[in-house]
Amino acid sequence: MPQPHASTAIVEQQIQSRTRNMGKLAIQLLFLITFFLVLVSHILPATSQEVEDEREFDYNPNGEKGPAHWGRIHPDQWGACSNGSMQSPIDLLDERVDVVSHLGRLNRSYKPGNATLRNRGHDMMLKWERGAGSIEINGTEYVLNQCHWHSPSEHTINGKKYISDINFPVPLFLSIAMFALEVHMVHESLDGKVAVVGIMYKIGRPDYFLSSLTKQLQSVAGSYERDTVVGVVDPRNIKIGSRKYYRYIGSLTIPPCTQNVLWTMVKKVRTATRDQIRLLRVAVHDDADTNARPLQAINSRTVKLFRPEDKDD
User: Fold this and answer.
1) What is the mean pLDDT of the chain?
2) Residue 226 has what pLDDT?
3) What residues does the Alpha-carbonic anhydrase domain cover (predicted)?
4) How far apart are CA 114 and CA 125, in angstroms?
5) Which helix (H) or strand (E) holds 183?
6) Buried (b) or exposed (e) across 272-285, using 16+ Cβ within 10 A?
């Protein structure tokens, strides 16, 4: 029979062996967890929020903080503004457009929600506190978080230019063909993907949605408060009026100019009054006439135009 002390030594050796094995297993598990987190951080798109304070850049084409220099202001965060190959806005030129009918109409499920008007420095942003419903694109749900306005419009259709300064009278025959404003409805999915729906406006009849915000915008214009509570706002009042739209992959049009943004530009150009557009600029208090980024190179990207087969649109 083995001696008692020999049995004790064997047990201690077994315990030490198990302890070493558990330590190795813990190290391997820690390594796997670290590897998984790094892998996920590279696979999943980063949450690409637009900057909330826009005072670090401006739209002066000849200034040190103008669009041509955005990527140099914060090279690590805003580098895509200068080096990105899928930047927005672009010219939606017919010659480059693939007309398709398989994309389907925009599946919008918007709902009213409490919102706040925020002066970001160069634009007015209407932000819904807990989202305002969603749209579904290719099986992915994107929650509507905010909308904001650029004047003149940033995108163009077939190279059409716009009213450069809405403070000056424009002949009626010219104003009909020019796009004076563009609204961006910014959506985000649970995994951080961004989808933007854009609508362009020319000078004409009042826009119903902007009319509903007139008092709040006038209040902002008369003060220097950053945020103004608006109350319940229904995004369904942002009218589209058409089932036709352009679809392409681009970027945010303000820093950090994050790419892989899914763009939907409504083909129908709607109308807003000169006073409505001017009020959006006056409320910002940046003493600038415009807040539109110049057109970016389309490079090898594909632009699709959804046109329903029934042609009732």
Assistant:
1) 84
2) 86
3) 55-307
4) 14
5) strand 181-188
6) bbbebbbbbbbbbe
For the ranges 169-173, 228-232, 265-269, which has the lowest average pLDDT?
A: 169-173
Nearest-Å Rg of the Cα atoms of the chain is 26
- Which two tokens mark 261? 């943004």
Token pair 């915000």 in the structure block, residue: 213
Rounded Cα distance between 307 and 25, Å, is 58
List the domain boundaries for the chain.
Answer: 69-306
Beta-carbon contacts of 224 under 8 Å, excluding residues fewer than 6 positions away, are: 285
CA 168 to chain centre: 30
Token code pair at residue 37: 């987190």
CATH numeric code, 69-306: 3.10.200.10
> In whole angstroms, what is the distance from residue 189 CA to residue 284 CA?
29
Residue 43, pLDDT score:
37
Q: Left if phi > 0, otherwise alpha if psi is -120 to 50, otherwise beta: which for 238?
A: beta
Active site residues: 122
Please report the pLDDT score of residue 23 as a whole number: 56
Give the pLDDT confidence of 154-184 residue by residue, as tens digits. 999 987 654 544 444 443 433 334 599 999 9
CB distance 113 to 128 below 8 Å: yes
At residue 38, the pLDDT reads 34
Beta strands in 101-139 (DSSP E): 107-110, 113-119, 124-128, 133-137
Eight-state DSSP code of residue 99:
E
Alpha helices per DSSP H over 265-306:
274-282
Could you tell me if 184 and 252 are in contact, meaning their C-beta atoms sit under 8 angstroms apart?
Answer: no
